[in-house]
Structure formats: C-alpha cells, structure tokens
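Figure 2 data, in text form.
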Amino acid sequence: MRALTCLFAASLLAACGSSEPAAVTPAPMPAPVVSSAAAPLAASAAPVTPGPTLERLAADTPKTTVAGNTFIAPAGWGITVREPATILEPPEGDSHIAIVDVQASDADAAVAAAWKAYRPDARWPLKVANDMPDKDGWSKRRTYVYQTSPNERRDVFANTMLAGGTWTVVIYDMTQPVGEKRGGQVRTIFDRLLPKGRKRESFAGKSANKLEQARIAALGAFVEAAQKQLGVPGVSVGLIQDGRVVFAGGFGVRELGKKAPVDADTRYIIASNTKALTTLMLAKLVDEKKLTWETPATNALPSFKLGDADTTSRVQVKHLICACTGMPRQDLEWLLQFKGIKPEGAMAVLGTMQPTSQFGELFQYSNPLAAAAGFIGGHVAYPKLELGAAYDRAMQALVFDPLGMKATTFDFARAQQGNSAVAHAPDVDGKPALAINAINYSIIPVRPAGGGWSTVNDMLKYVMMELAEGKLPSGAQYISRDALLARRAPQIAIGNDATYGMGLTVDRTYGVPVVHHGGDMIGYHSDMLWLPEHGVGAVILTNGDPGWLIRTVFRRKLLEVLFDGEPEADAQMAAQGKRFFDELAAERKLLTVPADTAHAGKLAPRYANAALGEVAVTRAGAATVFDFGEWKSEVGSRKNPDGSISFLTIVPGLVGLEFVVGAGTKRTLVLRDAQHEYVFEER
C-alpha cells in the first residue's frame, strides 16, 4: 500500500516525500538483529511489555534518553525506561517506539543490541537497508526495513545514528491504524530527537540572500540532478522575490520519448494544492459576509452529514478543511468507485464515514471532508446550481478571474490539450513508464480537494498575492488581510514545528515560517511555498513518480540557498532517491510476475464489496488482471511470511494495491488502507 499511502498527502510522512524527518520513514533491519531471519513472526506475536514503571504524560513533555539525547514525548503516551531503552507507548497500547542507546562497533551491531534490549523475540525478515547522510549532529545514519505480513497490519523499521561515541537506535513497531492516526504525534518525537547538547540549525534573524543568477543556477542544478536520478521527465519551477518573478521555467520534457519541453506555461495536476485555492474562495465569501469561519456546516448546506451525528453538529466552515475533526484519511471509496459519481454522490458517501479520534485531538487528513468545504462554498455562492457547477463557477469568479489565472481549470479535457505534462511512474521493475492516468479522473467528484490543473505562471500569481497579503500587482486589495491570514492560523499541530490551518501548513523547523502545501496524484507531484517574513515564494510542479521527493527536498535546498545553510539537500536527495529504488527492488524480489498460476487459479471470476464496487478477475495470456471497471491492472502474487497469499497491482503509478486472499471456505479478498478494511466476496 506504499503507493496509496503516498497519494494526496498532507505532507506528513517522509515515506511520501514530506517534510517529515527521515527517522520517521518506514525503514529496514539487518540479519544480525533477527535470529532465524527467514522464519516468519506470527501475526499474533505478543507485544512488548514495558514494565510497571510506565509514566503516562498529560502534555507534550521534554525528555532525554539514557545517554542524554533530547526529544519530546507526546501527550497521552506512556514512557518507561528499561536499561538502555526508552520506550514510548501510545494510548492504544499495541504499538511502541523505542529509543535505545548502545555501545557497538557499527550500525548493524548497534541495531542488533537495540533489538535485544527492546524485543529479543522479534523474527521479522530484513527487507532492505540503506545508509543516509549525516544530519542534525548525527553521523553514520542507517535505516533498516522489515518484511511484515499484511494481516499483521504493522510497520516495523529501525534507524541507527551515532553521536558522541554512542549509538542511538530508533525502533518503530506500530500498527498501521495507530501509526497513521498518530502520525503527527510520531513527528513530535522525531522533530526534536537531537544529540545531547545539540540544537538544530536555525535561520531565525537572518536576512535572505538575493536570488541572483548563481543562486538560481544552484537550484536548477539540484532539480536537474534529481530528475536524472529519479527518472522524472519534467519539472517546472518558479521563484518570486520582493514582488517580482526572478525565474520561471522548466527542465525536461512533457512526455518520455518526445521532444516538447516543459516550461512555466505547462499544465500539471496540482492535486492537494487545490485545497488552498478552495479556502481562498471561502475567504472571499467571508469577506462578502455570506458566511463566517464559525458558520455551522449544516447551516450553510443542510444536507451536510458525516457518519457520526456529534461530529456533524460540531463542524464549522473552518473545520471542513482543517484536518482536525477526527475524520481519518479514507480514499479508497473515491479511488475505486468514481464512474458516474457526482459531487452529491461523493457527499453522500461522506455521510457513511466515522471519526477515529476525538474532535481537535489529532492531525488527520480527510480528502472527502475537504471536498465538502468547496462544495459548501459553491452552494453558498450559487445556491440554485448543482454542487459541482456551483463550485466551479465560484472558483472561476472569486479566485481564477481576479488573480488572472487563465490557464487554471478543473476541465480535464481542456487541461490535457496543448502544453500539458503527461503522467509518468516507474514500472514494477523500476523503469520509467507512462503512468495509469485513468485513476486521476477519480478526483473529479471530489475536486475541491485536489482536482485543479495549473501552471507555474498561474500559481506564481497566487503566491504573489499571498506574499502581498491580499493585494494584486496593481495595488488593489483583492481580499482583506484578516480573511486571507485566517487560513494560516493553527487549527491542529503536526509535531512540534508545524501546524495545519485551512489547506495550508506553516512550518518553523528551521526558525523561519514557511507556508506551504504539497499535492500528489498519480504521476503528478507539486509544492507551493512562501516565506512571509522574507518576500520569497516558489512553485515546483513535476510529472513523474517519485516527484514527491524532488518537491520535498527542494524546500530544504531553497532555504540553504537563501540563508547559506549547511549543504544537506543534495546528499538527502541522492540518499532518498537510492532508498526509493532499493525498496522498490526489494519489493519486486518478493513478487511473482506473472502471478503464480496455482494461486491465481483459485481466484473467483468476480468479487464485490458494497462500498468499493466490483473486481473482475480475467486472464490475458499468462497474466492475471484485476478489472475495477474504471481502470484495471495486471497483478503479481506474493507469499507472505505468515503463509497468506497477496495479489498486488503492478500498473505504473499504482504498484502495490494489495488484495489478501481471505481465510475460510468462502472465496474473499481483503483490501485495506491504514485504518479501514474492505472484504470483497465472491459474486
């Protein structure tokens, strides 16, 4: 499910190329750590027992490891120290993060010692290991990722780091539901995990350098090197400083094998960057006094309904897109069932969804709820129109036309004509290929959350207005400062150094506020960011997976160029790119393609799930194909450590959508995201 995990991200997980520290990314473990490394660990393996001295924390609390390294322990979690191991336990009790300080000869020996201290019974096989560059005072960093079985619903990885002659090993042993739900709290731990006496680099109080030719060239060289390494065909970039565009251009091509270049007028899907444009439309309605941020959603649209009545009653306009209501990421419904679906249908599905955390408790990103924000705004502006048409007209009239964003559109047919970038992704063997663009049409019924197409030049107009606090280049006030900036106000924390507002993140990791948002759809990955205190903004659009790595590390590279920061970005980019392809290769070794005929032969010809629709199983020569109606993919098969059998999609752009053969006499397939399970039964 790595592919799905990385789609439509709110820029939280490093695995998806976000600003998350590398320590949080699911990683690998070496054979010395696991006695009998080839032996599977039963899904029902007993969890670690921290012991009787568990301290339950009422608030985020500064703590130190046994060796004196600093970190923040999250509110509600328990903490205990067991010899060299500092063990953190979320409220659910079925997951742990252990920070273990050990003396060892090298990283492999350190991780072996850490597992002996934390959980000596562990038997997960090593999947892959990678070296990472020095960072924040840590050297000899190395990640270790284990192979778990899908029915365990657990991610296990370890990271080793050296400082002051002592190894610190982080072991992440978390169930997927808890890991996703508490991702912001996990980031709290790693945001400030620093060697004893160390402080992170800060640019606070510094003046930004002028983006003159040499500095712009350095940014361009970074993009071109990343492109070459990752096989991303095209990247368009724009830079603003002090009220003017200092660079707008492109690197590479619109489509592999063709010569047409990308430039600042090339259209890409901007995915979740649409959210900030949607909340800008809402802010205009606030300015016009057609609603307030505190207007109950049901007042604005009486048919608005979530699966939980109490949550429904508490949602105000500002909560629709704040990732703070307790509604979880739940994307499979719209990814697999979108043919003929209208916005009204998408809103009806939202009424079946349940929160998995308390209102205002945790950062949880919900695309369907963000879509509701846009449709409610459109309804307020044009109450006589169908929800989708009302939203489209409101965006055109209140955002695109006033800002002069003439190329920006929700019309997929128009967007893909002329100067348009084509989606790409590695195939199952890691080679660049055309991605399955059909899945991108799934965003249309929920387009306020991520269905916009735009260009660098158009997005720069938007960023310029944000930096000017609501003024247009003419000097006219397009929107009030208060309504505009309310969208950046913290609604929920993402770790220690970032907060989420209304479709915008404010990140202070390096001492200066960076307002930004990322966007990810199949084969398209983008970011927009600006530094309000320094008059600098940027837009980066890409047309290939894993473009999320380029757009994420680009943020760090820009800060280095602006403030003469420590040169980390290039090494980060190289290491993360290698890691991506190494993990892809490791997954490929476990996969049988074409799918094993003995296992494929036991599949039913058709399966159905009430929420996600039907899957037809067909043969095309030696290949086994899963046909979802809207799109289809050949599948490979894999035997998991617990003996279960999985079938995984291998179409470029969605490699890894995993269906596990169910137990029992009736033929079933089980599909999961991090917090939900869907059983497909034979029809």
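Caption note: Residues 569-590 form the longest helix (22 residues).
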